[in-house]
Amino acid sequence: MDSFEGIIEFVTVAECQGFTAAARQLDISASHVSRQVSRLEDRLGAALFARSTRSVNLTDAGQLYYQQCKELVTGLQQANEQVATEQVTLNGTLRISAAGAFAEQFVAPALIEFAGNHPELSIEMDFDTRMTNFIEDGIDFAIRYGQLADSGLVARKLLDRPLMAAASPEYLEQHGIPNHPDHLKHHSCLVTNNNSWQFEMDGKPYNIRISGRWRSNNAHAIAEACKQGLGIAYMPKSSFLDALEQGDVVPVLQPYWSRHASSWIVYQNRRFLPLRARLAINHLLSHFEHWRE
């Protein structure tokens, strides 16, 4: 069991990029962290960090070791939390940033259920599409959709949400049915977050620049404009559920729909999430495990 000593300190130093910051996170002295890591290096016979007066960086051996050890530490933490949930009452305030109709219709009810199971916990949901500053805004995690920027944040897939193109029967009768994504250049498209739509052709992404006279970052507004015949919309199928059931819109371009769009849970560092955030994330993952568009 001695071989496990120093691993938590090592992983924390790697994630905090410094011994002092790691000591603050672990609430122990920096000298203790340094001794534990040094002893670990001695047992392994390899340097895990390249130290200088200004920085602490993982060596090649340290990087390989970190990739393995971080899963061990996460697994241990999750095991501890599983036991703790039987004995601990969650309290404090859980702050979540979300965006889109899916978060309003489906994520919020799941979190309301979670709140009902923890009566001493407060939850604040901020429905905003802007980029979240987790530290300044005090956000525990965010729900985001689509392709994520490489921000260094942790992203866990909540579920796949394939896209669907649709238009009203009246619009298609007046303007014709597009049979290829290129045909959208001659159609009025309902613009959401950008002017580029990604389809799939022969298993590869196929991007088309579109334009139209209705733009909104709200899925309800896009779906309504689609029902009223203002153009072609391209969103997750769940955004059209009511309109599809009532026959107000019909699918188009089905062979080219992108199947790889997803909703994500995004947060900073999995090692330092408060227990209430970890359990809320686990609740969401379990809730949507078998959910399909």
TrEMBL record:
Transcription regulation recorded as keyword: yes
Residue intervals passing through the bilayer: none
Pfam family, one: LysR_substrate
The keyword DNA-binding belongs to this UniProt entry's keyword annotation: yes
SUPFAM superfamilies: Periplasmic binding protein-like II, Winged helix' DNA-binding domain
Domain HTH lysR-type: 10-59
Gene Ontology molecular-function annotations: DNA-binding transcription factor activity; sequence-specific DNA binding
GO BP annotations listed: DNA-templated transcription
Keyword annotations: DNA-binding, Transcription, Transcription regulation
Similarity comment text for this entry: Belongs to the LysR transcriptional regulatory family.
Name the UniProt record assigns to this protein: Transcriptional regulator
The species this protein was found in: Marinobacter nitratireducens
